[in-house]
Design goal:
Elements: E1 18-20, E2 27-30, E3 36-38
Antiparallel strand pairs: 1-2, 2-3
The protein binds zinc ion (ZN).
Length: 59
Amino acid sequence: MSERAAPFYCPYCGDEDLRPSEEGHGAWECAACNRAFQLKFLGLMACGLQPNSTGGEPT
Ligand SMILES: [Zn+2]
């Protein structure tokens, strides 16, 4: 299981010719429009958590 998130399309021009950039982790370059961009994992959204996950009562 890979932690790397790979974009399928360039967010700027929509082309599929993406390649990993040497700029760093999560960085990609689009060969079609010569743009470099970076994906960043911001964390899990709170709405996906269980409402009772904070401090469960001991059984
Ligand atoms: Zn592009």
